[in-house]
Amino acid sequence: MRQISSISSLLKLLAFTLLFVSTNVAAQDAAAGEKLFKKNCATCHSWEKPGTGPALKGAVDRIAPGSYGDVDSWLKAWIKDNAKLRASGDAYGNAVFAKYGTPMSTFGNLSDAELGEIVNFLRVGPSTPPPPSGGNDKVPGKDSTNTEEGSDLWLLLIIIAVSALVIIIFTGVNRSMKNVIKTKAGEEADEPKSMWDAMGHWITTHKKLASIIGFVVFLTLGKIGWDALAGIGIYQNYTPKQPIAFPHDLHAGKNEIDCKYCHSSARTSKTSGIPSANVCMNCHKAIDEGSRSGKTEIAKLYQYVGWNPDSAKYMTKDGKMRNDTAIEWVRVHNLPDFVYFNHSQHVEVGKVACQKCHGEVQEMEEVKQFSELTMGWCVDCHRETEVQFAGNDYYKKIHEDAKAENKHKKDFKFTVDKIGGLECAKCHY
Q1: pTM of whole model > 0.90?
Q2: Distance CA 275, CA 405 (A)
Q3: How does pLDDT run across 218-262, given as a tens digit for each residue?
Q4: What CATH number does domain 18-124 carry, 1.10.760.10, 1.20.1560.10, 2.60.120.560, 3.40.630.10?
């Protein structure tokens, strides 16, 4: 009996271990699926509210898999290529499409394992969101300016000024003490002098030390003046207040939305473009409350586009909420009119990451000017950045010619300046 009891206990322990491991694996899969969901699906789908597509809470229970037999297989087929699924005559898929009327993107790039992780996430649901921060939208260091530059020089100048003042005071005290001694000795005291006379007297009697101090003060003031003149037109760390507080660290960071999803023209145009409000509404039809500012900032967006979150409809021009005024975003990065810069040339052809010029935007609550954006800064980048030849047909002919011309050189680096990156007419025309 004791042996049977031991075997029973062992089986229970094994069953518990298997349950724990399977639960843990499922939780890990759901966490990975949530990450994939945020990256690929959250643009159109919310968990709680319908948007461009249906709300996904309870979606697993609503689905009628039809000929696919089980819900998991149907979901994988739907996510991978919903158009193909609908074309096969699937009743539930066509009913969903008829209700929302918007074709869903296909995700043929996702592996079967990744599709399974998304399905697990749909079963488990999102992780608990962080508590609201109390609606404090103040950005740390929002009004900060580049005050560090030249601070050491100002400190040196203050030290020199204080030292000079101390010397003048002690010189006056010394003269007064001498006059007291002379008066007690019956000698005639020196006539009292003004501060400027005392200073002049000290300088004439300490010419070497006064010359050194004067030279240091001259160099310090000259350096401060030079930096001030050289900084004209440079607005590094410029962080203007925007009409709607848009947290880049939440969108580009936590939610991992690609920069070029909003700034789509950066791929094909000279400019990166200001995202239109309808891009925002792809998500914010369903998301009407932020984790930091509550409904305050998103309500401003609704006011601009004329969206009524209660009825989930756009208002007509006669409606109370309709507003045809464009959102007046304040431009952060500005180049002079005589400078030509092409985003597509750098982003698509050059394969330059947005962070190279704009900094770690995914960590900024509000975007600031990260780089100097001066001519010297651009020239240094062209001298240091190697041309991305791998898998880049744009540079195929140039690469072949470069290898032939420089095959005798060791450790040759084909940087941007080697393909005309320093020619004046490239940027100034």
Answers
A1: no
A2: 44
A3: 888 888 888 888 888 888 899 999 999 999 999 999 888 999 999
A4: 1.10.760.10
